[in-house]
Every structure is written in C-alpha cells, then in structure tokens.
Amino acid sequence: MTAQSDMATPSGVPITISNVSKAFGEGTGKPFQALKPIDVTIPAGEFISVVGASGCGKSTLMLMVAGLLKHTTGEIMVAGRAVREPVTDVGIAFQDHLLLDFRTAFENVMLHADIRKMDRAKLAVRAKELFAQLRLEHAMNKYPRQLSGGMRQRVSLIRTLVHDPSVILMDEPFGALDALTRLQVRTDLETLWLRRRPTVVFITHSVEEAVGLSDRILVMSPSPGEVIDDIKVDLPRPRPIVLGDAPEFGAYVDRIHRHFERLGVLHGITMPQATAVQ
Ligand SMILES: Nc1ncnc2c1ncn2[C@@H]1O[C@H](COP(=O)(O)OP(=O)(O)OP(=O)(O)O)[C@@H](O)[C@H]1O
Ligand SMILES: [Mg+2]
After folding, report:
1. Digit-coded pLDDT (tens) for 51-97
2. Which residue's CA is minimally distant from atom 27 of ligand 1?
3. What whole-number distance in Å separates Cα of residue 240 and Cα of residue 71?
4. Atom 8, ligand 1: which residue's CA is nearest?
5. Which of 45, 167, 171, 268 might form a disulfide with 197, Cβ 3.0–4.6 angstroms?
6. What's one Pfam family here (predicted)?
7. How far is it, in rounded angstroms, from Cα 201 to Cα 212?
8. In CATH, what class is 1-89+167-173+204-278?
9. What are 224-236's pLDDT values in tens digits?
C-alpha cells in the first residue's frame, strides 16, 4: 500500500469556493434557491467527493466550478484565478459517456487535438499509454457501437484524463455501469489519479464509491443544498475493493448514511445505535 507521503507530487491546482450560492430564475420574480452559500477549500491534488440527495445541487456546484454556469453570490478560484468563464485546464466527465459514434475510440480520445489545438503526436503517445494501462488496446480502432457500455465508459475516462488536466470534474461518471464494471473503472481511476494527482471533484450517489476513492467527502443536505459534513477519509492507498468489509470503511459509510436518515433522504430504514466515527 502507498503511504500518503509516497504519493506523486500533485499535478493538480487548488480550488477555493467562498460563499458560493445559486438561485435560478433571478429576475423572473420567482427565483429558485438551488444552493445555499457554500465554503470549501480544496488543496492541490485532493480527491474530493460530493454526496447528497437527488436535486440537492451537486451538478449545479460542479458546473459553476467548471465556469459553465454563473454563480449568484461568492467567488470560485481555480489555481488562484477567479472563475468567470469556462475553465480550460480541466477534464470533465458526465454520467453519459458522450462518445461520438462516427469516431473510433482512439479518435474520440484525440478529440482534444482538434478542439484544444493540442500537438497530435504528443497526445497520441499519451492516449496509447492510457489505452494500455486500462488494457483496452484492442478497443482503440473500434467504434463506440462495437464496444460494451463499460468499455465505452473507460474510453471516456481516458478522454477525460488524456490531456493531463490539473482539475478533473466528474458527475456520476459510472452511473450507467453494472456493479462489477463499476468496481473496475473505480480501480482504474484511482490508479490513474495516484500517478499524477490532479485535483478531482467527484459526484456520486454511491457512498461506498465515495469512501473507496476519496481523501475527503462533502455531504450535502437536500435542496436547497448546503454542506452539512466534511469528512476526511483516512484510509491507505491504493484501496482494494474488498476494503468494503473493513470496520473503518464501514464506519465512514455509516456516518454518511446516518446523515441521510436524519435528513429524511432515506425513509423507513432502521439503523442500529450509532457507533460510527465522528
Ligand atoms: N437550469 C436550471 N434552471 C432551473 N432550475 C434548475 C436548473 N438546473 C438545475 N435546476 C434545479 O436546481 C436543483 C439542483 O439541481 P442539480 O442538477 O444540481 O441537482 P443534483 O444534486 O445534481 O441532482 P441529481 O443527483 O439528481 O443529479 C434542482 O431542483 C433542479 O431542478
Ligand atoms: Mg446531478
């Protein structure tokens, strides 16, 4: 296992979210408060997850960090610069893999060369490296329709990481996968993250996935969302998937589930008396 001190020097940059809130439909007379003010400081190279009920504002927060949606109050800083337009040094992954069906897997990954005007030869070297690391060389010249859902998602993961962005924003990227493939992609993501340590903001509905992957987890209240717990996950890396059985892993999961139960996110579930970490 890797001690925290043995990990790669972060290639990531810090993100600071100060007093950031979001109201949709401002000026319509009937604004909708989607997010209450949020304050979070994310150090360079941290892997942070956000969990919370559907509709609590997770995607809204992520889009604002990416500069794709304007915040109503506050300030977001990425690498010390205030976000006022789309951040470019970023890799974004959504729930749907969003591969172009008329391009091969390799050409989908190479999209950055066209969009970002990156050096094609350099990008191709890095792309091939990643296809090899994820054991997907055989898929490189296939079209998305010729690949399984899990393979498509992993190609999409390569596309998110290939230009070595210093910030990676992932919104439920594994939502459409079966449980086994999900574990595989989770392991792949941790391996790739450990190698360069970009700053990652990862949204998931899976509490186990958040605990399995993160340095830190933000728990959000139901809508309008605010951060109600900020949990440091102190588990060694890499984290084997069987960690799910370990008591310390379970304690983190319980702590988050208890929030959800208390907030009415989980109904009709009987939880045993609290023994969780605090
Ligand atoms: N463009 C928009 N205009 C108006 N309301 C919006 C807009 N986008 C999101 N909302 C509302 O803001 C709230 C937060 O939405 P958001 O998509 O951020 O939730 P979420 O936490 O990502 O949910 P899920 O887990 O289901 O993806 C929801 O009530 C949603 O309906
Ligand atoms: Mg969402």
Report:
1. 999 999 999 999 999 999 999 999 999 999 999 999 988 998 887 76
2. 54
3. 38
4. 60
5. 45
6. ABC_tran
7. 14
8. alpha beta
9. 999 999 999 999 9
